[in-house]
Each structure stands twice: as structure tokens, then as C-alpha cells.
Amino acid sequence: MTTEITDELTDAELASRLATTAGRRLLQIRAEVGFADPKALRAAGDAGSQELLAAALDRYRPKDAVLSEEAVDDPARLSAERVWIVDPLDGTREFSEEGRTDWAVHVALWRAGALVAGAVALPGLGTTLSTATITPPPPAEPGPPRLVASRTRAPRLVTDVAERIGGVVVPLGSAGAKAAAVIRGEADVYLHAGGQYEWDSAAPVAVALAAGLHATRIDGAPLRYNQPDPLLPDLVICRPGLAEAVLAAIRESDTAPA
């Protein structure tokens, strides 16, 4: 896949190529810095990817606002019609551990109230999922539904819902990697209720919706972006046929956030 960035790209194509290019830069940083000092590697990754994305968006979409995990929030975005929502390095813990591939780069575009383009790069796997090219996942595999959850801090709600729908929990790293597992058909449900921000879910949700998947808050409400407070603490991404059962299990659980 070409990663050349030009003025003629559509927003979806630009999102894809930016995420891919930032991912390749992160692989270079991994090789240059090494894994001896994880804290230094994480800092270098965050800074290097942010610098690349900020410069590219300033060059190719200079009139647009940007909301990034690694930049100071500019309240001018609240009156902007177009806002890029980016996470330069999703899953810094996994990025700093040699051999792990479950980390990502998120690039999404919000326009006039909705996510209209997005890309999730999985640099360790050499792939990028984009609204420009995504297709529905393959049919579900036989057996119990697979719910992806944090490998270090999975909320009790995930295991409770898994029990209620007869599913199994699969530990995985970053938010982007977990969403990608559902988008790629490697899992069936991504349920999160432990606190996130808009940049954690914007690009994954954009791609999931483009792939025909269900994506909402855990109470079934729409996910809203470019809000004054970027905290967006929970979400469900799943196969449409499982949405009703998952949301019902959440309602019935006494571990769901109030």
C-alpha cells in the first residue's frame, strides 16, 4: 500500500496514510531507542508520532482543528466544523514491550456532529484499517462469543457480561487493538467501562461503523465527539447480532457504572 501523502487525497485516504506513516515512524523509534528503558521509549514514541501527525495536518488540512492526546486542548475546536481527533500512540505499555504488536495509531475526522473518516494503524502487524477500504468482518466462528478486554485491568463488568451471554474473555492490549480484533473478525465484542477519552475511541468507532458493526455507549446511547470535556469513559463495539444481548447483560449487571 502506498503511503505517499498529497494534496489530492480524500479525508479517509489522508487518515489512512497518516496513521500508517506515523506507525512506521514508531517502528523506527522502537529500533532506535530500544527496550532497555521503557519509560524513555514511551516518551519518544508519543513525541515522535505527535510531531509527525501535527506537522502533516498543519500542511495538508491547515484550516481544520485538532484534538490530540499529546497536545494542549485548544477550545477553538468547539466552534470548528472539522476536527481531527488523534491518538499518536495508543497502547504505550505494549509499545514499550519487545515483541508485542497490540498497540496502534488512531486518526479520525469529526465533521459537523459526526465521525466521517478514520483509520487505525496496527504497525506491529503491518496493517491499517480505514474507512476508505474497510469491509464487514467474516461470519462469526462457531463457539461462544469472544469478548476482548484489557490484559492488565479488565473491569468486572466484562467478565460478568461474558458469563451472562455465554462468552469467553480474551485479554489484549490497547483500545485500538481490541476494536481491530472485532473489526477483523478475530473477536466478537469489545466492551469498555474503565475510563477513556475521545482519542481512544474515535478512529476505532469510525472504522467499526463503516464495517457495519454496532458501536455505542454501554447504555446504548450514541457516542458523541468534539465535546467540551473529551472524557468518553465507556463503549461497546460488537457484531450487530450480539448488540441486544450485550446491552441487556450490561443493564442486568450490578457491576455496570451508574
Q: What integer value in Å does the Rg equal?
A: 17 Å
Q: Please give the largest β-sheet.
A: 5 strands, mixed
Task: Write the CATH architecture name of the largest domain.
Answer: 2-Layer Sandwich
Helix-strand topology string: HHEEHEEEEHEHEHEEH
- Approximate strand percentage: 15-25%
Helix content: 25-40%
Number of strands: 10
- Structural class label: alpha/beta
Mean pLDDT: 94
Tally the helices.
7
CATH superfamily of the largest domain: Fructose-1,6-Bisphosphatase, subunit A, domain 1
CATH topology of the largest domain: Fructose-1,6-Bisphosphatase, Chain A, domain 1
Query: Main sheet: which strands, in order across?
Result: 1-2-3-4-5
Describe this protein with a few key phrases.
globular, 258 residues, D-Maltodextrin-Binding Protein, domain 2, five-stranded mixed sheet, 2 domains, Fructose-1,6-Bisphosphatase, Chain A, domain 1, alpha/beta
Summarize the structure.
The protein has 258 residues and is of the alpha/beta class. 37% of the residues lie in helices and 21% in strands. The strands form two sheets. It has a five-stranded mixed beta sheet, with helices on both faces. A five-stranded mixed beta sheet has the order 7-6-8-10-9, sandwiched between helices.
